[in-house]
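Q: Got a minute? One more chain.
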Amino acid sequence: MNITTKIVEKYSTDSKIFFLFEDALTDASLLESAEKKAVKAIIKSKDFEGKNGETLLLYLEEKRLFLVGLGKKEEMTIRTWKHAVGTVAMVAQKKKITACSFLLSKKVLSSLEVVQMAKTGTVALSNALYAFDEFKDKEDKVVEVKKVEWILEDEKVKKEFNTGIKSGKAIAEGVEFTRMLGNTPPTQMTPEMLAKEAKKLEKTFDTIRVKALGKKQIEAEGMGCLLGVSRGSVLPPRFIIVEYVGKKEKNPTVLVGKGITYDSGGLSLKPDPYMKDMKFDMLGAATVLGIIKAAAGLKLKRHIVGLIPACENMPSGDSFRPDDILTAMNGKTVLIENTDAEGRLVLADALSYAHKYNPKEVIDFATLTGACMVALGNERSGMFTPEDELAEKLNKSAEIVGEQVWRLPVGEEYSKAVKCEVADIKNLGGVGHPRFGGASTAAAFLQFFTSDKKGKSYPWMHIDLSSCYYGESGKSYIRGGANGFGVESFIEYLK
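A: Always. Here it is, folded:
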């Protein structure tokens, strides 16, 4: 998709998209006289009132004009903007439009910071127009939008907007990479294929190095939890290390991503309705790779290490079992109470491995618990950390880009819940009841592995990815499946 900016007199498509505030419906300075007249009549009839998310298509001779509502100006946020852009882009695409012009008046531009508006708008466009349809017949594929123009009123704003578009394109590529990895069927997106996709980053960017440890190397590292989870699958595990060096730093930021490429639950087999969508259980890994791809595209002056424990969790005669005791890389033992609580096990080895880097901070991403989704739904992801500074920084970053997180607790009661009489720790626990506090006890389990054998720990944050994919129907501004949540927020966080 070619995205450009132009001054108002030079737009070149026959499909215009025009944004209006609910309390400024007379703001039609960018429209031609016939368009102004039509809009005035529509507003008078109250067929369009400018409410947040409202769209209306007008046909004027051989041209089309889409009106898009932004709600009240004082309530405008970057999230409002993101959803409005995505919504109208999808409406236009369904009308089989391949080129369109987005008209931005000074009033709309004054509601948000221009560069951020351009950046987020570019990502929103990419997100809305993306479709994972490579397995569909050619005639059933979505129409490709090849050309988008942002129409502005002066050269100064155009220059700022171009700066935002350039950054937005790099971030959008990271988001789309994450979505593609997550949407790919699990028979294709195996641990080995995930490692190959990571290797492609090394070929694209000279600032990225990738190493994928095989089973024997994983054994040599003592990663007993990753090996235990992978035993039931005919596919061998991989431990993928992706290092981005945009700047040499003694203490890198380490990102850890859960890479369960398919989760059947193992011997603690999931009920049939919960088996669907388990290809998305590697979205933590996909998020890490998307962040690193975007960071490299932006040439961020940071040192980032991505650690991805990748395997399948499958039932077989050789699967790990409830009542087994596994030994993690740091020498700590884990009692298995349920083989479907496998994500925290593979992350335990990755969090232990992270100590090798003497990290500035470690952030893990995982589709870890249904309990977090029960608590928050699928519009926010759970954030767990004992570090107030990290939590505040992420909250601010997410707000800037229009994503949402919510801090949930870690603490003594959750850590006690995963203590065990026959091993150092167990992989399930509850506070007051086995099913109570599941998201926080899972986080407490992970926190246990942030300390090394000498008791030294690093600053740590866990993201339970409740909002990383949507159902088949999707939203008005994005199709169903993996949605790339987290890439934008953490690029902002890393800036």
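A: The chain has two domains: 2-175, 184-494.
Q: Perfect, thanks.
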